Amino acid sequence: MTPVDEPISVVVVDDQDMVRAGFAALLDAQDDLTVVGQAADGQAALEVCARTAPDVVLMDVRMPVLDGVEATRRLAGGPSRVLMLTTFDIDEYVYTALRAGASGFLLKDATPDELVSAVRVVAAGQSLLAPTVTRRLIEHFTRQPALAATPPTLDALTPREREVLGWVARGESNTEIAARLVLAEQTVKTHVGRIFLKLGIRDRAQAVMVAYETGLVSPGR
User: Fold this and answer.
1) Torsion of CA 153, 156, 158, 159, to 10 degrees
2) How far apart are the first and last CA of the chain?
3) What is the C-alpha separation between 208 and 127, in angstroms, rounded?
4) Neighbouring C-beta atoms of residue 6, cutoff 10 Å
């Protein structure tokens, strides 16, 4: 986690020079953000990130040499969190980017304030999906065949942890889950941390993916 007295470091990756420069200028103008590098393709992004170890990588999807999804996959497990930014809200991009390890997905028509806020949210270890992206992600899972009621991949979780994971997948915050289950918020936070550890995931975006993929949660339930 970034210390409170240090700015959030960001690498901006986009193959369009003007777009990349505009994003970098916007983010660098914030007191709590600093742009430590830029790249025009996924391969260059990996090289910049290896040198700078940024807190957040603002990553375009469609780029030459190496696309944003593959670059994200290669960054997974490292110190940087990836916020995908694209003009496309096509299902397969959302799905594959999140499976690759992206912590957020925002469309390029987002306002400057929304973009700055998104970087802060992802840097804080939370996940972020634009509303239209969330809708398409749910639609993707709606089309998938039903899976077993008790997915073997969730066997490590206690009944309470499964319950908490279900509400996380429905987009509820720790505060909302605590109120719903009549638990202390710190208790819910502990449950969420244990869920992440047991499932080998690092944020709520991946938790949502696991919950839907295993059939723990399905749209409308």
Assistant:
1) 20
2) 35
3) 10
4) 10
Q: What letter does residue 14 receive in the DSSP assignment?
A: -
Q: List alpha helices for 76-111, DSSP H.
A: 91-100
The structure's pTM equals: 0.69
| Nearby residues of 9 by Cβ (< 8 Å), 6 or more positions away | 2, 34, 35, 36, 52, 53, 54, 55, 56
- Locate tokens 């916007």: which residue? 26
Q: Hunting for tokens 């339930």 — which residue is that?
A: 221
* Rounded alpha-carbon distances, angstroms, from residue 100 to 62, 72, 74, 148: 15, 6, 8, 24
Ordered alpha helix ranges (H), 86-203:
91-100, 112-123, 131-142, 159-169, 174-181, 185-199
Residue 124 CB partners (closer than 8 Å, separation 6+): 1
Q: Mind listing the pLDDT tens digit for each residue in 120-143?
A: 988 887 766 655 555 556 555 555
Instruction: Catalogue all structural domains in the chain, each as residue range(s) with its CATH number.
Output: 8-139 (3.40.50.2300), 145-213 (1.10.10.10)
